[in-house]
Amino acid sequence: xxxxxxxxxxxxxxxxxxxxxxxxxxxxxxxxxxxxxxxxxxxxxxxxxxxxxxxxxxxxxxxxxxxxxxxxxxxxxxxxxxxxxxxxxxxxxxxxxxxxxxxxxxxxxxxxxxxxxxxxxxxxxxxxxxxxxxxxxxxxxxxxxxxxxxxxxxxxxxxxxxxxxxxxxxxxxxxxxxxxxxxxxxx
Length: 187
What we know:
- The chain is an alpha+beta fold.
- The chain has one domain: Jelly Rolls, CATH 2.60.120.10.
- The chain is about 25% helix and about 35% strand.
- The strands form 2 sheets. Strands 1, 2, 3, 4, 6, 7, 8, 9 and 10 form a 9-stranded antiparallel beta sheet that branches.
- A hairpin with a 6-residue loop joins strand 1 and strand 2.
- The longest helix is centred in the middle third of the chain and has 11 residues.
């Protein structure tokens, strides 16, 4: 289940929770974030190749390419056996910006985006079927959990625009990790 929690940047332990898709979409749209739910045009096997994944979502990818001028799309997969999972997680957990959109569609698994907009923090738990588009220059961080399990389609207008510009703000350490938030939701 996708979830949005909106916090004040000064109260990381208390946030207003939304779990209905329409509520999440509306709240995120108000801050310029696109949030969609996609379905594959064909059934994907567990051992689907990256090309199989891109082909299954080709109509939706093409629509976004036409809408925003994206030039390329790729697939990234991470699981608990990935040799760089700890280093990658630590890097993404640092608050940063990008000079272009950060667009992610979750083909498998889940991840937690935090968007720092004004004095609010928007925690978005994205799961299989969710697309999130973080606008350029919005401060944010991402948690894939201690044992990641995700596959995402990424879209780019310019791969260099996806380089992270770190803010050197430690605010991300104050908010729940993916693992902690998932624990709260099942408690």
